[in-house]
Design a protein that fits this description.
The complex is a heterotrimer of chains A (228), B (259) and C (248). With 259 residues, chain B is of the alpha/beta class. Chain B is built from 9 helices and 11 strands. Helix content of chain B is 36%, strand content 27%. The longest helix of chain B is centred in the last third of the chain and has 17 residues. Chain B is globular and about 50 Å long. Chain C has one domain: Orthogonal Bundle (MetI-like fold), CATH 1.10.3720. Helices cover 78% and strands 0% of the residues of chain C. The relative contact order of chain C is 0.12. Classes of the chains: A mainly alpha (228), B alpha/beta (259), C mainly alpha (248). Chains in contact: A-B, A-C.
Chain lengths: 228, 259, 248
């Protein structure tokens, strides 16, 4: 057994790992999109006039956030077929990730909304805006820059939790890496490559977040521009 | 000065009561403001003066009593507590409010701030709204700041934009809630001159909460002294400021002068 | 609904020992990883604000690397890849190390930001009163940073608890694995998972509660509200602030 890094082997398995990376990324983006939708739904449900609904949703969110993602994914994987719903592992995985991170997203959105000064809503009422206009033109545009950074971070966490789905058979990057390891009896190279890929994804993700923050008009909070 | 028999009240408060949980903020308040009258509300903090404006603007609820605006009920008491009229949004359109904390929309330029409500609520076209916004901006003396964002404006400038924004909806009743309290002393003057002009040149009904006694004296027809959710004294500026009847009014004015 | 409860009771009856062992393992992992994590985070966190540039760079690299890698990758690498470099770790060691290293990076960042959030005036006041650097850090800066970090710490406790479930992926029979093995042997998944999730939830709630107790003791001096609560608590049996006279 070679007690060091086998670069030739690493190069050999790289293409397979890279295509699995793509699967992981797509999985993450898809789950994130669903998580955002789910988060918004939860947020709206929480504000429903019926206090019981709001409180139950709050309790649900607390429960999901306090319990491990793996168990939730397993739960879906084993329980859904018993209830007659048969889904492939990929879909089950996406569902599990979306629900789990959807709860986190709803908290992010909620704190983003709460951090908006009350005066904005007062001013909108005083000017006669309808509720719809208040939300669309005033509240939402100001909330988005506030939630960009936390949301982006969760997207990165999501991407990095795809290995969990390997246990229910989704062919994402860690699944492939273990596969390669089992086939060749060498785990060092595939695992290290996975680590490097994750580091690159993290750094790229952080760069994207900063770009998005700049693009979404954080600059309207900056003070006097010198040459105006 | 005003013939109250011939001019109908623009705003009427009838036995208005408001509770904040267990705390009573407004106590059986009766008030009639005639069309075109300028009223200043003064008093210690917690006396309910801002609340008077806020319930008129339906930013807060009332639990007892009735509020009538231009002959229509905004808040109605049907025996089980006050309820907001279903036509509230129509009635509200005749009222405009300027806030202590300006509340400009930070993601829009000065011009967009002013034009936004006319576009969305009055459904003016963008050109019409922008044109009228330009006029209003010129009226408050800030034409060159039309493309500036609120973060780039001083407090006084922001407040003037806020006044222009309020006027863009063509209200008949103006509410000023301590509009100079959050400003540096240097910038208070520019805002006050705008208010003076509004008071003297145009026919608004004005309710103003203020700590500036000189302004109150200058533009008010009546000054109300509030304390503990009640109107303790009600009279002309000369009556209230120079020769108040109540002890509490006296001590309040003394405290203000010493500050 | 009645039969559901009966199912749960039956499950506990038959597999209770497995779940119990799993829970013990989870708690053991949690405690060990937490201890190591705190030690590492303190070292790295203080290193991040060190005057020595090399230490700063090393610590920043540490944080960037361990935050950039997910906990799972670190666990897998420690258990599967490391043997090829000559270091063979048991699953337990790999798990504890992996969890501690990974989470210490996040905690080091919290420590850095809370210390840097203490107003500069505090440093000056302490210096003017004649304290040296060590005293200043120990009596003035650190307590204030500690008070600020408590809410973040509570969150981190729950995150670590949830992360112990990853150990099931490297063959440790902690609570998640216990649940999974029960499910593949019986054919009724829902009651088993309900039990497992509830156990995690209860542990998480207990952690949050303990954290809030500590938070109360540490930060009672920060706000008048805290002083009121401390005064109220003084009469309860839960807390006895020793030799502390709480005055408004």
């Amino acid at each position: 057994m070679k007690p060091w890094f086998d670069f030739a082997f690493a190069l050999e398995i790289l293409p397979r790992l890279l295509s699995a990376t793509w699967i992981s990324v797509v999985l993450a983006v898809l789950s994130f999109a669903l998580a955002v939708v789910f988060g918004v739904v939860l947020l709206l449900l929480r504000r429903v006039k019926f206090k019981l609904v709001g409180r139950s949703v709050g309790a649900f969110i607390e429960f999901i956030r306090s319990t491990p993602l793996i168990v939730q994914v397993y739960c879906l994987f084993f329980v859904l077929p018993e209830a007659g719903i048969i889904l492939d592992p990929y879909t089950t995985g996406v569902l599990g990730l979306s629900i789990h991170y959807g709860c986190y997203m709803s908290e992010v959105f909620r704190s983003g909304l709460d951090s908006l000064p009350n005066g904005q809503r007062d001013a909108s009422t005083a000017l006669g805006f309808s509720a719809r206009d208040t939300y669309l033109r005033i509240i939402v545009p100001q909330t988005i820059p506030r939630i960009l950074a936390p949301s982006g971070n969760f997207l990165i966490y999501l991407a990095k939790s795809s290995p969990i789905l390997a246990t229910i058979g989704v062919a994402e990057i860690m699944f492939i890496a273990k596969d390669i390891g089992q086939e060749n009896f060498r785990y060092l190279e595939p695992m290290t490559i996975v680590g490097i890929i994750f580091l690159i994804l993290s750094a790229a993700g952080a760069r994207c977040i900063r770009f998005a923050e700049a693009a979404f008009g954080r600059n309207w909070n900056q003070k006097e521009v010198p040459y105006v | 000065m005003f013939d109250t028999i011939r001019r109908p009240p623009a705003v009427s408060f009838r036995s208005v009561g408001k509770l904040f949980g267990n705390l009573r903020v407004l106590h059986n308040l009766d008030l009639d403001v005639v069309e075109g009258e300028h009223i200043s509300l003064i008093g210690p903090s917690g006396s309910g003066k801002s609340t008077v404006l806020r319930v008129l603007m339906t930013l807060e609820t009332i639990q007892e009593g009735q509020i009538i605006v231009h002959g229509r009920s905004l808040w109605d008491d049907q025996g089980k507590g006050s309820v907001m009229s279903p036509h509230a949004s129509e009635i509200r359109r005749q009222i405009g409010m300027v806030f202590q904390s300006f509340n400009l929309f930070p993601h829009m330029t000065a011009l967009q701030n002013i034009a936004e409500a006319p576009m969305r609520v009055l459904r003016l076209s963008k050109d019409e709204a922008m044109l009228s916004a330009e006029e209003l901006l010129a009226m408050v003396g800030l034409s060159e700041k039309r493309n500036s964002y609120p973060a780039q404006l001083s407090g006084g400038q922001q407040q003037r934009v806020a006044i222009a924004r309020c006027l863009a909806m063509r209200p008949k009743i103006l509410l000023f809630d301590e509009v100079t309290s959050a400003l540096d002393p240097e910038t208070v003057g520019e805002v006050l001159s705008v208010i003076r002009r509004l008071a003297s040149e145009q026919d608004f009904t004005i309710l103003m909460v203020t700590h500036q006694m000189n302004v109150a004296r200058e533009i008010s027809d009546r000054i109300l002294f509030l304390h503990g959710g009640r109107i303790l004294e009600d009279g002309t500026p000369e009556q209230i400021l120079d020769d108040p009847r109540e002890d509490r009014t006296r001590s309040f004015l003394r405290a203000i002068r010493e500050a | 609904m009645i039969t559901f409860f009966e199912k749960i009771v039956a499950l506990l009856d038959e597999w209770g020992y497995l779940l119990f062992q799993g829970t013990l393992l989870t708690l053991g992992l949690f405690a060990s990883a937490l201890a190591l994590q705190i030690a590492l985070a303190l070292a790295v966190g203080l290193g991040l604000i060190s005057r020595n540039k090399i230490i700063r760079i090393l610590c920043t690299a540490y944080v960037e690397i361990f935050r950039g890698l997910s906990t799972i990758v670190i666990l897998f690498w420690a258990y599967y890849a490391l043997p090829f470099l000559g270091v063979k770790l048991s699953a337990w060691t790999a798990a504890v190390l992996g969890l501690a290293l990974s989470h210490s990076a996040y905690m080091a960042e919290y420590i850095r930001s809370t210390i840097q959030a203490v107003p500069k005036g505090q440093y000056e006041a302490a210096r003017v009163l004649g304290m040296n650097d060590r005293q200043r850090m120990r009596y003035i800066i650190f307590p204030q940073a500690l008070a600020a970090i408590m809410p973040l710490f509570g969150n981190e406790l729950v995150m670590l608890l949830k992360a112990t479930s990853y150990a099931s992926l490297i063959t440790l029979s902690e609570l998640t694995e216990a649940g999974r093995s029960i499910v593949v042997r019986t054919f009724d998944a829902l009651p088993a998972f309900v039990i497992v999730l509830t156990i995690y939830y209860l542990i998480a709630q207990a952690l949050i509660f303990l954290n809030s107790l500590i938070e109360l003791r540490i930060s009672f001096w920060r706000t008048s509200e805290g002083i009121d609560r401390a005064n109220a608590k003084r009469n309860s049996r839960l807390l006895k602030p020793k030799n502390l006279e709480v005055r408004r």
